[in-house]
Amino acid sequence: MQRTTVITGASDGIGAAAAAKMLANPGDTLVLVGRSPEKTKAIAHELECDYFVADFTELDQVRTLAAELSTKYPRIDVLANNAGGVMGHREVTVDGHEKTFQVNHLAPFLLTTLLIEKLVADRATVINTSSAAHKVMAKFDIDDLDAVKHYSTNAAYGNAKLANIFFTKELQRRYGDHGVNAVAFHPGIVGSNFSADSAGPIKLMYSSVAKKFLLTSAEGADTLVWLATTQPGTDWTPGEYYVRRKLTKTSRQAQDPALALQLWEHSAAMVQ
Predict the structure, then answer these.
(1) What is the spatial distance between Cα 102 and Cα 124, in angstroms, rounded to a whole number?
(2) Judging by DSSP bridges, how do beta strands 50-53 and 78-81 pair with one another?
(3) What secondary structure does DSSP assign to the chain, as a single string?
(4) Percent of the chain beyond pLDDT 90?
(5) What is the pLDDT of residue 174?
(6) Is the Cβ–Cβ distance between 228 and 80 less than 8 Å?
(7) Which residues does the chain have with pLDDT short of 50?
């Protein structure tokens, strides 16, 4: 059966590398989503696959993307929510939300929920790119998701990556029995450009000097491709978190179902 795989954040880094690896499955439809028109078009043409351009700092662009995907493709078998990034100073989007939280969590939350009927019908896999940063950087406050009271680059990123895991677990709780298989993973510390807008320790860690010690984009993409091409329930457990293809413990906070439920409800209200 021909499968359709949608990968966001595919104009660079592990998204682009994962797309290249996915070409090993001839006959499948591969759909790339990126922020940069030039980069996304170039990669899509190189790989001879479909593409869409959407900037996740504007939720209306996410709504348009969801409508276009739903209209064009009869089915979606894999949705890889891979778009994200680390920001520097606190910024507020046109939608009124803190930029790190919106790009890394609210936008993929909105995209997934807008497509949920199709994802359920197609028994799709939803893959959320998280990070080990959720264990060491998060200072999660359910009442301050937009970091109005307290903001730091590290905490904003850690909170967003923790949100990815909460979203994965609550998505699985709500729709797992209806056919959706949600999973989160940490790609490792990859020498890509996703931290280009950041500042402080994170930017230093991803500097040109440090990059020689980091994973390549292809290495970081390995677990994403594995999750996208293997059998949920057999090769991996839905609702869980993986590192290097292995089931891995999250932080204790990430295992709180009440917080996951609260985040879902808050997120739904924030994207209305």
Answers:
(1) 24
(2) unpaired
(3) ---EEEEESTTSHHHHHHHHHHTTSTT-EEEEEES-HHHHHHHHHHHT-EEEE--TTSHHHHHHHHHHHHHH-S--SEEEE------SS--B-TTSSBHHHIIIIIHHHHHHHHTHHHHHHTT-EEEEE--THHHHT----TT-TT-SS---HHHHHHHHHHHHHHHHHHHHHHHGGGT-EEEEEE--SB-SSTTTT--HHHHHHTSTTGGGGSBPHHHHHHHHHHHHHS-BTTTB-TT-EEETTEE----SGGG-HHHHHHHHHHHHHHT-
(4) 79
(5) 98
(6) yes
(7) 192, 194-195, 198, 204-207, 209-211, 213
* Closest of 48, 55, 40, 60 to residue 23, by C-alpha: 48
Strands 29-34 and 4-8: parallel
Q: Which amino acid is at 182?
A: A
Can you read off the two tokens belonging to residue 182?
Answer: 């949600």
- The DSSP bridge partners found for residue 32 are 7, 51
Pairwise CA distance, residues 183 & 82, whole Å: 12
Active site residues: 157
